[in-house]
Amino acid sequence: MVDEQFKQQVDAYVDEVWEDVVADIDRLVRHESVEDLSAAEPGKPWGPASNGALVEAEQMAERLGLTVTDVDGYLGFADVPGASGPERHIATIAHTDIVPLGLGWHFPPLEVTRKDGYLVGRGVQDDKGPFVLSLYAAHFFQRLVDAGQELPYTLRCIIGNNEETGMGDVPYYLERYPEPLFCFSPDADFPLICGEKGLYQGRFTSGQVAGEKIVELDGGTVPNAICGQATALVRADAASLPAAERIAVEPAGEGLVRITATGIGGHASMPAGTVNAIGVLARYLLAQGLAGAGERDFLELLVTLTEDAYGRASGIAAADDKFGELTCVAGTIRTVDGRFVQTVDSRYPTTTTGEAITARLSELAAAHGCAFEQTSGDAPFYISPDSPEIQALLATYAEYAGKPDAQAFTIGGGTYARHFARACAFGPGDFDPDKPAWVGSEHGPDEAVSEEALRRALKIYIVAIARLM
């Protein structure tokens, strides 16, 4: 199917539809599609905000001529028919939900801004922009079908809606529909991701100690992001508290002070270069004696959890030759009914298990007068980079990127790929040596992506799908 004429046809198609692609990304970005289980209802299991983005995406797919199925609001899919029928299909899967907006934005987070060749807005990189690419890749093949060409396999674009907070949408889908013959998720980096560390989350809960000196602790946005800002409301005199790096102190009413720690946030799987604000705050409170006896024990636990991001201080460090080192970060801290609740997120290699992590963190909790429980977990995922599907995708990327030595690699992040028997994560993120300093990353403020990189990724996806066919 793929020859020079086909690739020229792809180039012309991308030029033709590109402004429509950007407009559709903007339509999705305008939905603040954060999970809200408190507002869930039948047909909207992840809450109305997430569902709004799902409906928007399904309407886009219909407008592009695809055959759309909504799966009870858990997720949806859009098909281009092939000779195989719907049972035997090739799939893409991307998601329309986002992490919370967070603080520190210099651009409107809920609309697309074009600046210096980049698109800026929450979700342009993770994963609304890549999702729209998957729709337009399918639209290219729908045009071929409309012109009388038969595809050997049905092409399915799965529209996820719960990737950021647990991926509960995919098990619901797989209970009702057959596995794809092969599936890739445009929700990561090029060249290609063939393996993902195990995913683990848990939480520490203190005894009923809040209030002696610390009225409230609050920080972080989601468990799978490193905390960029954390605050404490304490009983103290603001004038008596010294200045410190990354610490702001302000009066908060009679006898009360609000202390704000600012760190450097980031994705839990990529802690290099980050500074966890929870650790900054805990160290300041301890240094200034701003903790009662029970509160002090909990703050010392926070210091241990934030001493490093690789589980060394907490005693769960592990590594292997496929995935490298385990990571473990403190994500969110809250005050609930007089107790402090601290979440942790770990990405682990094959040399440990979720059970071993739970056992050690439970010991750590007990030593600090706390309780610990695991809240979620998935084993590591791996597909051989020598498989023919992986080689077809790698060859396509190498051709368009001019990188003949491109190799598959593994990550600490979790993508939808881990839920399928034969799958991988495939772009569109790529090394960008000319990226301006203002460009933010996924899950952070000023999230942005190179427009030219997205254009190239759309071409890669179309040609890669043709080769899979």
How does this model look, in words?
The radius of gyration is 23 Å and the shape is elongated. Strand 4 and strand 5 form a beta hairpin. Strands 1-2-6-3-7-24 form a six-stranded mixed β-sheet. A four-stranded antiparallel β-sheet has the order 19-20-10-21, covered by helices on one side. It contains nine helices and 26 strands. With 469 residues, the chain is of the alpha+beta class.
Task: Outline the secondary-structure elements.
Layout: H1 4-29, H2 48-63, E1 67-71, E2 75-80, E3 89-95, E4 113-115, E5 118-120, H3 128-146, E6 154-160, H4 169-174, E7 182-185, E8 188-189, E9 193-196, E10 198-206, E11 214-219, E12 225-226, E13 229-235, E14 247-251, E15 256-262, E16 266-267, H5 277-287, H6 293-306, E17 319-320, E18 324-325, E19 327-336, E20 339-348, H7 354-367, E21 370-378, E22 381-382, H8 388-401, E23 409-411, E24 423-425, E25 428-429, E26 448-450, H9 451-468
Parallel strand pairs: 3-6, 3-7, 7-24, 8-25, 9-23
Antiparallel strand pairs: 1-2, 2-6, 4-5, 5-26, 9-22, 10-20, 10-21, 11-13, 12-16, 13-15, 14-15, 17-18, 19-20
Helix pairs in contact: 1-2, 1-3, 1-9, 3-9, 5-6, 8-9
